[in-house]
C-alpha cells in the first residue's frame, strides 16, 4: 500500500504531462510488456453444494446404497448418466459443458476436501473459509485481502481486487484496497447530464486535498472511472461465441471477463453462486441441483471460452462451505455434511485428475459415520493456488496457523508428494 | 489540511490559554474546555461528541456555554428529546419485548417457510439467515435466500412482517444520530454496540437485536464497565452470536442412546446426559457415538455443534471485550474461562426466550483463570468471578481507554492521554462517564493535532450530511440502503471486532465514489422520503458545518455549480466534509 502511494506520487508528474490520461494506463501497458499478470477468479458456492452429486464417485457401491433416489447413474449411453472422468469419478451430467476443459487437461478436482472445523452452520463455515482461519472468529480480514498485502504490487491499480457483488465479501475484506462492484457499467459518478462537469469538479477538489490519504485515493478513484469508461462495459461482446447464462452468476462472470480483457490490472476476482442448500427434493440428473449445476457449468465454460488464450494466465477456483451427508434424507434431499469437492481450472493447472486421498463411503469410513471425511484441508488448495499460480512463495501471512505440510501438486512445475 | 491547521492553531490553542488550564496528568479533574471558544472549537466538539453541526447548533452551544453543553451531553437522562421521539413514534417494534417480536413477527415467517418448504427444495434455515431487508440483503454476503417469485402468498406476507423489525431498528439508528439532541449518547451507543458487536446475519441473533441495543447497551453506556460487561454476557444476542448458549460441560456417551428418539425427547435426554456428564477434558465428546443419526435430527438442530465446550465467547471476551489481544492471557485461560461460562444459555431460544443459567450444562469442576483459583461447585458464580476479574484487570482499563481515545481524539491517540484515561478507569472502578469526561475535556482533545484529524465512518458521514443539510428524513430506509453501499451496513459487521475506527478502513476508491454519489443523491432529492430543506444552503455548510475550512479549489468548484443542489453536493462530497 505504501509503495502504491509512493508510485502515485511519482505518477503525478505523468498526469501533468499527459493531461488527463489515466495514471495507471502506463502501468498496465508496461505490465503487458513484461510477464503477464496472473489472475485468480474465485467462485463461492454458498449454501453447501452437494459435492457427491457434483463429482460422483460412481465406483462406490456405498454411494448408490446411500442415495436410492438421488444417485447419478454410472456413465452410460443415456444423457442422464454421469460424465466419466477417470473410471471412478464422474461429473454430474449437467456439467458436461466443462468436459472439454477436463479433456484438454486444464481442469482438476480436489475431492474429500474442506475444513476440519466441525461446524455445521453455514454462517460459521463460510466465515472460516473466507478468513481461512477455521475456528478463529476474530480474524479481521479475509485471506484474499491478506494475499494483497503479502504480495506487494508496485503497480497495483484500483482494479487489482474486485468482487462482482453489492458488498465486499469476507474473503476480500481488510486493509488492502479492494472493490465491490455490482454492475461495472454503473461504476463512477452518477449525476445525469451533469456527470462530466460534476466529476471534474470533484476531481479538482480531491487533487487539492494535499498530503492526505484522501488525496491519493481520490486521484485513484477518478483514474479508475476513466479507465472503466474507456473499457466501455455497456458495449461488451463476448469473444469466441461464448454464451453466458442469463443469471446473476453468468452476469458476474461476464463482467469479470470484461475486466480481464480490458487490462485494468485485475489480479484477484470474486464471484458467488447461491442457492445450493437442498434439504428437500434435491433432484438427481434433473431437478433443482441439476439446474444450479447447469448455471455453474455453463457460466464457467462461457468464461473460459470468452477469455480464450488469456486463460493461460487465469485460474478459476470454486469452493463451498461444507459438503452434504452421504445418505439422502427423508425428504429426498441431503443434510449438512462435511467433505466436499473443489474445482481448479486454468492455465498451468495439472488437470485431468481428481486430487486428494479418497476416504471411501462405507459407514466406518465416513466422518461421524455419516459424512464424507476430509483428507485435504481446503487451505492446502488455497495455498497451492497462491504459490503455484499467483507466485507468492511465503504464504505464512496469508494462511496464519496453517502448517501446509500437504502438497497436492496442482500446478505444473510444483512438486507432487 | 495544513491550512486548516494554521487557522485552528491560533484559534483553538488561543482559547485554551485563556482558560488557563494545566496539562499535567496529576490534575485529573482539570478541564481544557475553552471558556471563550472559537467557532472552530465548538464545531470540533459537535463533530466529535456528536454527528456534526446542524444549522443553529453553534449559536445554541454558545448560549449554553461550551463546558456546560458538554456536561449536558454527559448527563443525557436529564435532556428532553421530544422531536426525536416524535420521529420514532411510528415504529411499534422498538418498544416490544423479544417474546412479542418473536411471536408476532419471526415465528409466523418461520412457520410459513416450513410450510412452503414441504413442497420445495430449499432450506428454511438458509432463508432465515438472510431476511430480505433493505440494506440487509447480502449482509451475510451470500446465503442468497429464496426470493420473491418462489414464495407462497403466506410466505411473502409473513416475510414482510419479519422485515419490519430490522427495518425499524435500522431506521431508528440513523434517525437518532441525525436528529437526537442527546448526540453524545448516540455516539456512545454506537461505540459500545460496536465494541460488543453482534451480527444481524447470524441465525437467531437478529430477533434479539432490538432488545440488545435498547435494554443491554443503551442504559449502560455511561455506567460502570462491569455492569455493561455483565449485561452483555447474559444478552441473548451475544449468547447466540458467539455460540455460548450451546456451550456445555462435556458429556459421556448419552448421545448413542438418543438415536432412536424423536427430536423433543432427544433434547430432554441431552439435558439429562449433561447431568451425568461433567467429566472435563474430553475434547469433542459424544462425537464417536453420534453415528449416522444427525440426519434424523430436525433440520434446525443439524446446524448446531456437537455437545461440548465452545470457546468462542471466552476468547472474544478477553481479546475484544476486555484485555485486548496483547492483554496477557493464554490459550489455557481461554479454555478455563470457557468452562466457567458453560451453562450460560437461553430458555426457549427459538421463541425469544431470555437468559438462563442451566446448572445441568455447567462444568462444576475447579478452574484456574489468569492465576485466580475458582473452587469447584461455583455454578453461575464462576462466570461472575471471571467478569469481576477481567473488569478490574489493568489491561482492560488500557484497552478500553485506548479505544475511546481513538474514537474521540485520533486514530493513534497520544499515549499520555490514554494513560490518564486508563488511570481514571481504574480509580473510578470503570466509570465510563468519568473516562469519557477525562478524554473529551483533555488538552489533547482540543489540540490542533486532533482538529479534523479523523475521517468520518460512513455512518458518521451520512448522519452529518443529514444534519448539515437539515434534510427531513420521513423515511430513513434510503439512508439505511445507502449505508450498505457505502460499505457499512447497519448491524452488519460480521466479525466480532465490529467496524474499524480508523481512516484506512474507510478510505478506498469504491467507497469514496459512493460518498460522492450519496452527496449527489441526497442534495438533489433522489433519496425518496429524504427531503432536502429549502433552507439548505451552501454558504452555511461551508462556513458553519466546515468552519470555513474549505480549500480554494473546493470553493471554486462550488462557485461554478449550475444549481444550488449541485453546490451542496460538491460540498458534501468534498474531501473536507469527509473529515471531522
Describe the structure.
The complex is a heterodimer of chains A (417) and B (580). By secondary structure, chain A is α/β, with parallel strands linked by helices. In chain A, 33% of the residues lie in helices and 12% in strands. In chain A, a hairpin with a 5-residue loop joins strand 3 and strand 4. In chain A, helix 8 runs antiparallel to helix 9 and helix 10 packs parallel to helix 11. Chain B is mainly α. Chain B is built from 29 helices and 6 strands. In chain B, a hairpin with a 2-residue loop joins strand 3 and strand 4. In chain B, helix 2 packs across helix 3. Classes of the chains: A alpha/beta (417), B mainly alpha (580). Chains A and B meet through helix 6, strand 7, helix 8 and helix 9 of A and helix 7, helix 16, helix 25, helix 26 and helix 28 of B.
- Unreliable spans of chain B: 1-11, 13-28, 123-148, 252-305
Number of DSSP helices of chain B? 29
**Biggest sheet of chain B, strands in spatial order?**
1-2
Look at the helices and sheets of chain B and give the structural class.
mainly alpha
Strand percentage of chain A: 5-15%
Order of helices and strands of chain A: HHEHEHEEHEHHEEHHHEHEEEEH
Summarize the largest interface: chains and residue counts: A-B, 82 and 85 residues
Name the helicity range of chain A: 25-40%
- Can you summarize the main beta sheet of chain A? 9 strands, mixed
Structural class of chain A: alpha/beta
Number of strands of chain A: 12
Number of helices of chain A: 12
Task: Please name the defining characteristics of this protein.
heterodimer, A: 417 residues, alpha/beta, nine-stranded mixed sheet, three-stranded antiparallel sheet, disordered N terminus, B: 580 residues, mainly alpha, two-stranded antiparallel sheet, 52% helix, globular
